[in-house]
Write a structure and sequence with these properties.
The chain is mainly beta. The protein has two domains: about 70 residues, Immunoglobulin-like (Sandwich), CATH 2.60.40; about 60 residues, no CATH class. The N terminus is likely disordered. About 10% of the residues are buried. A four-stranded antiparallel beta sheet has the order 1-6-3-4, with no helix packed on it.
């Protein structure tokens, strides 16, 4: 891919009211994209999440929480950041030569189907908690249940 065909856009929004707002972001010239894609969209704040891969003209709905800021990046280049598809996450450690640590986020007791997209570096082992999860490195999806009971407050 040559530089003329690669596109990166950072989009931010802030909600200063009591209710969350939903926005529809369309992958087109309205957000400054002039290549044909495909595009990867990732939420960067308030937590990280891979929102998906989109063709030019496709849209993604994003919810900006009440009294919060929201930032996302849309790119036609493959991401150079660690990530998990299927749920929100926080990168706790990403230091070459040491195990990467990601914290999976969500409401207590809820489930998600996660997978690992192509990563910027090679991994030889994956675990969920202390349980081996080699299938994730092989491109398989895995069902998870987040710790806690539904209705409990989150730790964040």
């Amino acid at each position: 891919m040559n530089a003329a065909n690669s596109m990166i856009r950072l989009i931010s929004q802030k909600v200063g009211r009591r209710n969350p707002l939903t926005y529809t972001i369309t992958m087109d010239e309205a957000i400054g994209l002039d290549s044909e894609g495909p595009f990867e969209a990732r939420r960067l704040h308030p937590s990280e999440e891979i929102l998906g891969h989109f063709k030019k003209g496709e849209s993604v709905k994003v919810i900006v929480p009440a009294f919060r800021a929201y930032a996302m990046i849309v790119s036609s280049k493959p991401s150079r950041e660690l990530g998990v598809a299927g749920c929100s996450y926080e990168v706790l450690r990403d230091v070459p030569g040491k195990p990467a640590i990601l914290k999976l986020l969500g409401m207590p007791g809820t489930g998600a189907k996660i997978s690992l997209p192509a990563q910027p570096r090679k991994f030889t082992k994956a675990t969920l908690g202390k349980t081996p999860a080699a299938g994730l490195l092989a491109g398989e999806s895995q069902e998870i249940t987040l710790p806690g009971h539904p209705g409990e407050p989150r730790d964040r």
